[in-house]
C-alpha cells in the first residue's frame, strides 16, 4: 500500500473504516485495557516533579489523567503485549521485573513477549530520576512499583477481555496535512510516518486502535506546571469517541529533534489554531486523531503469524553528566562493567532513593533491541530516542566539517533493512537510553559543525557516541537473521 495524501477536509465519515473483511484475513485474539497511573497532585501529597526540560518543575494541578494502556495480540501460537506508558521513560530493569511478574500469571491467550514503551510526554511525573529538586531524584516513593503493577494489571485485563478479531493497518504522512512535525537540529531530516492499527471483533466492533507517531509529546512547554499526557490525551479521546474501544499512542522516531509545530490553521476545520499552550495542545491532539481516522478509511487487512526476536546490548556510558547522576544516586537501574558483570550496589530503602553507584572506570548499561512481526508488519523496538537519519537511512554526505569523528562509517538503518510490506518503529521501547545519534554527526568538541558557536542539543542527553553504532549493529543482526 502506498502512503497517500489527505482527503479533502470534511470528507471523513466515522463509519467508513477501510476495506471490507477479506476472506484471507487472519483471525487473532485481541484484548486491550487502560489502567490509571496518575499520581496525586495536592498540597498535602508528596510533590510531583514533572519530567523533561529542567530540574525542579513541580506540578501544581492535573490537566488530564495518565495511563498504562495495553494491547494483547495472539495468533494462537504466539502472543505479544504492547503497553504504552504516559511517561518520559521507563528503564530496562523495571521492564524485566514486569516480564517476570507477567510470566507468573496463567494468561489466556498466553503472552510470550512483553514490550513496555513510553510516550515521552514532557508533562508527566519523573520516572528517570533527574528532574527533581537540584541533585535529588524526582521519583516519588513507591511510584515505580505502582507503574509496574499497572502494566501487569493492564496486560491481565486485556487477556481476560480478549476476543477473536481481525487487524487492519494504514499509514500516512502527517506533514501532508500541514506543518505538524519539525526538526530542530541540523541537518533537517524528518520522519513523519504515522501508522494506525485497529482491531475489530465480529460485527466490526472496535476493540483497540493503536497510533504510532514520530514526535515528542511536548506541545505543553517548559513553563507548564500541569500534569498531562500532552496531545495523546485528546488524540485518544477523539479516537475512542469515534470508534469505541481503547486508544493507544506510542512514539516512533523522536530524536533529531522531532517535535510538534503549530500549523497555524486546523487542516480539517480551517479555523485558526487556538491561543495558549493548553488549548493548542488539545487541538493538536484532535488533529492527530482525525489524521488517524482518515488513514483508516484506506486500511487493509493485516494477516499472518506473530513472532518476536531480541538482542541484548551493552552500552558504554561516555556522558559525564550521566556518570555524575549515577554517582549521586539519581538513577534507578543496574549498572554493569565493560565485561558485562553487574556492579553490586546496596539495595536502597525505596524507589525514591536509588542506590549510589560506587566509582567504576567504565560503567555500562544493559538494554535490548527487538524485532516484532505481526503478519505483514515488522516493528523495530528501539530503547531510546533515535534520530531519523538512522530510521530512514538519510545521512548527510559529505560529512559536515568539524564533526568529532571524521570518516566515521555509516550505521545500518531501520526501514531500509526491513522486508515486510509495512514498517513501524516504537521508540523508547523497553528502556530510555537518551538520544541515539549517527556517530558521524557526533559534535561535542569545539570547533562545532555548521559554524555554530555552541554545540547542538542531543549529545547532552545521549549515553555516548558508540550508542548509535552498537544499537544499529544489534538491529542488523536481528533483521538479517530473520
Descriptive overview:
With 482 residues, the protein is an alpha/beta fold. Among the domains are: 31-162 and 343-362, no CATH class; 306-317 and 363-481, no CATH class. Helices cover 19% and strands 23% of the residues. It has helices at 92-103, 143-160, 232-243, 277-296, 320-327, 388-392, 467-481, and strands spanning 28-36, 61-62, 67-74, 79-85, 113-118, 163-173, 181-183, 193-201, 206-213, 226-227, 246-251, 258-260, 300-302, 306-316, 364-374, 377-381, 385-386, 422-426, 435-436. The strands form five sheets. Strands 1, 3, 4, 5, 6, 8, 9, 11 and 13 form a nine-stranded mixed β-sheet that branches. α1 (92-103) crosses α2 (143-160). The longest helix is centred in the middle third of the chain and has 20 residues, at 277-296. The radius of gyration is 21 Å and the shape is globular. The two termini are 22 Å apart.
